[in-house]
């Protein structure tokens, strides 16, 4: 019943995007100068989880690369590594420029020099940019004439209200091209699902009632919708039935939620992952003990203020942890499923 398993994966960038024409042309226009060999406009993409930020950025850059020579994509998710060298190394790996440089022991200026010296133009997609340890990297990269930045994060106010945000970064990016994505409406999610069904399933496997039910449960989050579709399809595929029912969708709902959570955990970089694991192993842990355990287990511990940022991102932004109390009386725990 499955004709193309890839189409049911959440990481798949579809051939065509649904209901984002306005934003696609907005970003394409900002990057358009690259086709003439000059710098584009730095851009910011905001929107809730599952609204298609990452997909939109990758899609527009892919199109641009199909249409013109000398444009490179450099993608990095700052949650997976947020120090300057981790980010630069990630960008080098994805773009192929400076990809011979090792992550450990290469000066940040060496990476920057590699980028400056290439004849190509680089679109640097910095996903989950709020996780960056040092936002001045946005200046170091963004000031290069042949680098255009597309920075992605969930919350606009949060990004600009960040009291630590360097003044020059703030003013540089307050005039950036800004894309604001909203949660998908119910009928938009249905169109997204229909396109995946068309691309990935034999006709007749799923009826309109089941598609509407998935869209309802996903509540505007396209990743959740696709996950539910993929899981319920595989459930039916394993049975001797040939149609997805509402019960199939209910049966995979909890597992789909856990899966999405696990995907998120898997994307954490070393230090955030370590903090998460310490809390998860202990079930509940006081902040003092958490820091002590971290210092014991980390090869090269981050300073206190960095850890505090990581922890607050794990709690507030990603909902992977919860906390009670304040100051030294603060406790962290993993929320009930
Ligand atoms: N316009 C679209 N048309 C069709 N599918 C889409 C569209 N936008 C996103 N998707 C699909 O929805 C899923 C979620 O999109 P994406 O990962 O880009 O969301 P996001 O906003 O980056 O979320 P997060 O903040 O959690 O990273 C992906 O599987 C993607 O393929
Ligand atoms: Mg994303």
TrEMBL record:
Keywords: ATP-binding, DNA replication, Nucleotide-binding. GO terms for biological process: DNA replication. The keyword Zinc does not apply. CDD domains: HLD_clamp_RarA. InterPro entries: AAA+_ATPase (IPR003593), AAA_22 (IPR049945), Cdc6_lid (IPR055237), ORC1/CDC6 (IPR050311), P-loop_NTPase (IPR027417). It comes from the Archaea. GO terms for molecular function: ATP binding; ATP hydrolysis activity. Transmembrane segments: none annotated. Residues 39-175 form the AAA+ ATPase domain. Belongs to the CDC6/cdc18 family. This is Orc1/cdc6 family replication initiation protein. It comes from Natrinema altunense (strain JCM 12890 / CGMCC 1.3731 / AJ2).
């Amino acid at each position: 019943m499955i004709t193309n398993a890839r189409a049911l994966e959440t990481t798949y960038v579809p051939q065509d995007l649904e209901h984002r024409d306005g934003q696609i042309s907005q970003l394409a226009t900002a990057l358009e100068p690259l086709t003439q060999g000059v710098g584009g406009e730095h851009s910011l993409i905001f929107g809730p989880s599952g609204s298609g930020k990452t997909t939109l950025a990758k899609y527009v850059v892919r199109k641009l690369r199909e249409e013109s020579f000398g444009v490179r994509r450099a993608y990095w998710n700052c949650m997976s590594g947020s120090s300057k060298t981790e980010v630069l190394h990630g960008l080098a790996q994805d773009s192929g420029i400076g990809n011979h440089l090792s992550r450990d022991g290469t000066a940040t200026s060496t990476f920057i020099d590699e980028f400056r010296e290439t004849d190509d133009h680089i679109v640097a997609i910095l996903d989950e940019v709020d996780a960056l340890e040092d936002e001045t990297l946005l200046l170091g990269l963004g000031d290069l004439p042949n680098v255009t930045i597309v920075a992605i994060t969930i919350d606009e106010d949060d990004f600009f209200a960040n009291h630590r945000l360097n003044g020059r970064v703030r003013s540089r990016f307050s005039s950036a091209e800004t894309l604001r994505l909203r949660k998908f409406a119910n009928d938009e999610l249905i169109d997204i699902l229909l396109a995946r069904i068309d691309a990935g399933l034999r006709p007749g496997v799923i009826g309109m009632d089941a598609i509407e039910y998935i869209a309802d449960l996903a509540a505007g989050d396209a990743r959740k919708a696709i996950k539910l579709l993929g899981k319920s399809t595989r459930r039916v595929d394993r049975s001797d039935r040939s149609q997805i029912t509402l019960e199939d969708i209910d049966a995979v709902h909890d597992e789909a939620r856990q899966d999405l959570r696990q995907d998120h955990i898997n994307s954490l970089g070393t230090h955030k992952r370590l903090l998460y694991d310490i809390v998860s192993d202990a079930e509940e842990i006081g902040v003092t003990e958490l820091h002590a355990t971290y210092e014991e287990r980390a090869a090269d511990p981050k300073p206190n203020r960095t850890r505090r940022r990581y922890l607050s991102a794990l709690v507030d932004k990603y909902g992977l942890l919860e906390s009670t109390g304040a100051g030294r009386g603060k406790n962290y725990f993993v929320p009930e499923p």
